């Protein structure tokens, strides 16, 4: 009886896995199939037509590489400054007691909840009056501000996880506070820094809403905007789904790779506040 | 860095002790100031990136701001008129209602499925669990724009797999069914997609919580004769309640702001205000009709909605902080 129900659960789990992975599979599968096959009434479920033609035609007008460059530039800036700012702030709130500390934490938590959808008009007005529309800097500023609260919260957990006693012991041995920190605590924080960097990467790489508002020019598009434009352009002459799926795959693959590398740390960072204690 | 005030009393002291005292107090002051220097960069960027826009939003929402102001005319202060106009507009209430219903239905469904999948991960053997986890991870990792594109292909009227498969069911005629034609099927489709992309996060978070429930407690309860459902209800659920609460809250907030998903689905063939949720509504009012003031007022209402929902969560986290 117990055995039977266990087999039943395993079957159920496999069915769910298949349902959940199907869209991802379908994207890859369609990307490799020629248009003539995709236009047939009966879908082709078996994997991989094995043709790279969709990929080459999705990339051939050069707009893909321009968007890739834009995305890479923005992402690098966001990741660098988010890690730097969040690291300093996390240090402050987990190593010092100071007036306004609590207010700062509450503000950080609340800001993290603010929806981009409620701010984008103001951000548009601000950037247009600063002349920063369609620029890497303008959109990066907004992204950093949007991502820094969560990275502070994430890193705070990591900094608090390194006992201050370790630093104090090193200070007794004659190191300055700064030296003690750099020699003892900093190396132990590496996983936390990597995790928050990847979080920032994913946010900046995938962001759509703010980019749509702040980067209206075609030559300033990031990859998500490029993909949307690609779909729309294709729709004007009866969507070529093979090409569109190849384009989606190009946008998705780097993210999927990074995500798989770090997901364990990200989930634990996200829920540590809840599970702890 | 103000220089210390020198009182006559202090002048009487010897030069050296003054210097020592100064040095000590300087170091102390520097230590006291250090945390403020550390958070300065974050505060700066937050003020520019979110603080100023929020303030602008608040100010603009009390002004008359339309096309004339676009061309440089000064905006006129009209108090709460924009809010009054908005709140007496039946269309706005429909959008708010639709957003809230969409948000709570999708968040509820996501939570139930996420909890069920987490329990399933816990119940099956290692190999099956790994398969389930990899599949969830891949779905989670997909960038929103990429997954929305795939889903519009899956729901495509002519060659979509969804229509093809549903049509196979005997007695169901889904041949060339247009999901984008009516708001009901549009939001059903949107709900399915958003649930698909949100369940993995919930499942993983709850699963992480489940692994913290100790086996000893469960064994002891089994010895005491507790049935499976009793164990779930009386032991497991109460122990993972904090995770569930936070995941649910985040989900509600996220599902209230499903702009990208709805926008891309609208691009694929549905327009008109019947297909709007709050995000797309604000976008249309602000960019389409250039009525920044009404859009700002609507944004402020969304802000208030979000903050009042998050307040509880922030307070709970703050309690843990002490």
Report on this model:
The complex is a heterodimer of chains A (277) and B (322). With 277 residues, chain A is mostly helical. Chain A folds into 2 domains: 2-51, no CATH class; 58-275, MetI-like fold (Orthogonal Bundle). Chain A contains 13 helices and no strands. In chain A, α3 (53-59) packs across α13 and α4 (63-95) runs parallel beside α7. Chain A is globular and about 75 Å long. Chain A starts with a helix and ends with a helix. The model of chain A is unreliable at 270-277 (pLDDT under 50). Chain B is mainly alpha-helical. Chain B folds into 2 domains: 8-76, no CATH class; 89-321, MetI-like (MetI-like fold, Orthogonal Bundle). In chain B, 76% of the residues lie in helices and 1% in strands. Chain B has 15 helices and 2 strands. Chain B has a two-stranded antiparallel sheet. In chain B, α7 (144-154) packs across α13. The longest helix of chain B is centred in the N-terminal third of the chain and has 46 residues, at 15-60. The radius of gyration of chain B is 28 Å and the shape is flat. Residues 1-10 of chain B have low confidence and may be disordered. Chains A and B meet through α1, α4, α5, α6 and α7 of A and α2, α5, α6, α7 and α9 of B.
Shape of chain A: globular
Look at the helices and sheets of chain A and give the structural class.
mainly alpha
Q: What percent of residues of chain A are in strands? A: under 5%
The CATH architecture of the largest domain in chain A can be given as Orthogonal Bundle
The N- and C-terminal alpha carbons of chain A lie at a distance of 38 Å
Number of strands of chain B: 2
Low-confidence stretches of chain B: 1-10
Multimeric status of the protein:
heterodimer
Most extensive chain interface and residues per partner: A-B, 99 and 100 residues
Structural domains of chain B: how many: 2
Secondary-structure content class of chain B: mainly alpha
Order of helices and strands of chain B: HHEHEHHHHHHHHHHHH
What is the CATH topology assignment of the largest domain in chain A?
Answer: MetI-like fold
CATH superfamily of the largest domain in chain B: MetI-like
Largest sheet geometry of chain A: none
User: Total number of helical segments of chain B?
Assistant: 15
Treating each run of at least 4 consecutive H or I residues as one helix, how many helices of chain A? 13
The CATH homologous superfamily of the largest domain in chain A is termed MetI-like
Secondary-structure element order of chain A, N to C = HHHHHHHHHHHHH
Q: Could you name the CATH topology of the largest domain in chain B?
A: MetI-like fold
**Low-confidence blocks of residues of chain A:** 270-277
């Amino acid at each position: 009886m117990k055995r039977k129900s266990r087999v039943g659960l395993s079957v159920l789990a496999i069915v769910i896995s298949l349902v959940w992975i199907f869209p991802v599979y379908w994207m890859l599968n369609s990307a490799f199939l020629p248009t003539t096959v995709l236009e047939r009434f009966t879908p082709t479920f078996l994997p991989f037509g094995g043709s790279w033609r969709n990929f080459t035609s999705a990339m051939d007008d050069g707009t893909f590489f321009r968007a890739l460059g834009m995305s890479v530039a923005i992402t690098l800036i966001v990741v660098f400054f988010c890690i730097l700012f969040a690291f300093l702030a996390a240090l402050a709130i987990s190593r010092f007691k100071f007036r306004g500390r609590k207010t700062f934490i509450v503000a950080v938590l609340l800001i993290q909840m603010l929806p981009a959808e409620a701010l984008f008009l103001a951000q548009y007005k601000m950037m247009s009056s600063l002349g920063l529309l369609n620029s890497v800097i303008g959109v990066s500023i907004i992204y950093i501000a949007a991502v820094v609260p969560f990275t502070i919260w994430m890193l705070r957990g990591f900094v608090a996880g390194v006992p201050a006693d370790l630093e104090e012991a090193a200070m007794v041995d004659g190191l300055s506070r700064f030296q003690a920190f750099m020699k003892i605590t900093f190396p132990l924080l590496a996983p936390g820094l990597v995790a928050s960097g990847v979080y920032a990467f994913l946010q900046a790489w995938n962001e759509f809403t703010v980019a749509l508002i702040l980067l209206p020019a075609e030559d300033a598009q990031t990859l998500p905007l490029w993909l949307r434009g690609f779909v729309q352009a294709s729709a004007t002459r009866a969507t070529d789904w093979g090409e569109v799926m190849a384009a989606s795959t190009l946008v998705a693959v780097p993210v999927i790779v990074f995500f798989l590398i770090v997901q364990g740390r990200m989930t634990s960072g996200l829920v540590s506040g809840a599970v702890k204690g | 860095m103000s220089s210390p005030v020198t009182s006559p009393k202090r002048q009487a002291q010897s030069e050296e002790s003054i210097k020592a005292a100064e040095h000590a107090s300087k170091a102390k002051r520097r230590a006291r100031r250090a945390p403020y220097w550390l958070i300065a960069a974050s505060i700066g960027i937050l003020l520019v990136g979110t603080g100023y826009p929020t303030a602008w939003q608040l100010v603009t929402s009390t002004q008359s701001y339309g096309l004339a102001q676009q061309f440089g005319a000064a905006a006129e202060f009209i108090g709460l008129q924009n809010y009054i106009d908005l709140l007496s507009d039946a269309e706005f209430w429909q959008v708010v209602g639709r957003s809230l219903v969409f948000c709570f239905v999708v968040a509820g469904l996501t939570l139930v499925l996420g909890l069920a999948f987490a329990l399933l991960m816990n119940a099956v053997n290692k190999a099956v669990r790994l398969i389930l986890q990899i599949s969830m991870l891949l779905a989670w990792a997909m960038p929103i724009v990429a997954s929305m594109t795939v889903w519009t292909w899956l729901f495509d009227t002519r060659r979509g797999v969804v229509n093809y498969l549903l049509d196979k069911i005997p007695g169901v005629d889904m041949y060339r069914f247009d999901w984008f034609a009516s708001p009901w099927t549009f939001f059903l489709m949107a709900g399915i997609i958003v649930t698909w992309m949100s369940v993995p996060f919930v499942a993983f978070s709850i699963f992480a919580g489940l692994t913290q429930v100790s086996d000893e407690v469960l064994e002891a309860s089994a010895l005491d004769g507790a049935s499976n459902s009793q164990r779930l209800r009386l032991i497991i659920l109460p122990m993972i309640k904090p995770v569930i609460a936070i995941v649910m809250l985040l989900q509600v907030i996220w599902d209230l702001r499903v702009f990208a998903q709805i926008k891309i689905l609208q691009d694929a063939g549905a327009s008109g205000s019947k297909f709007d949720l709050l995000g797309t509504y604000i976008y249309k009012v602000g960019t389409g009709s250039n009525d920044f003031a009404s859009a700002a007022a609507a944004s402020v209402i969304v802000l208030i909605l979000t903050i009042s929902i998050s307040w509880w969560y922030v307070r709970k986290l703050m309690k843990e902080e002490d």
